[in-house]
Amino acid sequence: MSFPRPKKRTYSEDELYEYAVGALARRMRTVAELKRLMRARVEEPEAEYGHTLIELVVRRLKDQGYLNDSQYAASFSSLRRDNQKFGRMRVITDLKTKGVHGDVIDKAVGAAYEEVDEEKQAREYLRKKRLMKPKDQKQVARIFRQLARAGFRTKTIMAILKKWDVDDETLSALESESA
Predict the structure, then answer these.
(1) What is the distance between the alpha carbons of residues 74 and 69, in angstroms, rounded to a whole number?
(2) pLDDT at 107 over 90
């Protein structure tokens, strides 16, 4: 037996604003994320009224300084760099997923990773994940893929693996796999 879904409640602008402020109080969000959350609360988000209502709330939040994709991207980039030790490419991908505009991403990630030595960052990531020098080809491939997922460039990964005396045959196989 299935239960009928409750009818969507129609939110006024003030109620939608209060909902949005509550969502932002729980954690920082991008404009795209907040719009997605509000669309679920508006009866017909594609209709003129629903779209206008969401845009009014977003404009109000921006004017009050509660919603700012540039600040979000800068904060997100520095937190990912310092806490999770991720590489530049991972942060860029994550910000794109969250709906941040490309220009904003370039500025924020560029500023966050300006003084970062990528090889040192990758070594810190390995230390954080407790990954040691690989003993066989399977472990080399695992470390290679993990560093690639963490957002480090192939050139940096190869430099680290060469310092660990990984044979050239394995390195060339991994390099051709990533290309």
Answers:
(1) 8
(2) yes
Q: For residue 6, is it within any domain?
A: no
Q: In Å, how far are 5, 22, 73, 146 from 93, measured between CA atoms? A: 36, 27, 12, 15
pLDDT of 8 over the 70 cut? no
Do 157 and 108 share a domain, yes or no? no
Look up the domain containing 106 and give its range: 69-112
| Whether the predicted pLDDT of 41 surpasses 60 | yes
Helix axes 13-26, 31-39, angle to 10 degrees: 130
The answer to whether position 164 is within a domain reads yes
Residue 167 in contact with residue 141, Cβ under 8 Å? Answer: no
pLDDT in tens, 53-100: 999 999 999 999 999 999 999 999 999 999 999 999 999 999 999 999
Q: Which two tokens stand for residue 121?
A: 């960052």
Torsion of CA 58, 35, 22, 98, to 10 degrees: -110
Dist. CA 109–CA 113, nearest whole Å: 6
CB–CB of 122/160 below 8 Å?
A: yes
Q: Does 144 share its domain with 98?
A: no
| % of the chain exceeding 90 in pLDDT | 69
- Are residue 144 and residue 162 in the same domain, yes or no? yes
**Side-chain-side CA neighbours of residue 65 (13 Å):** 0
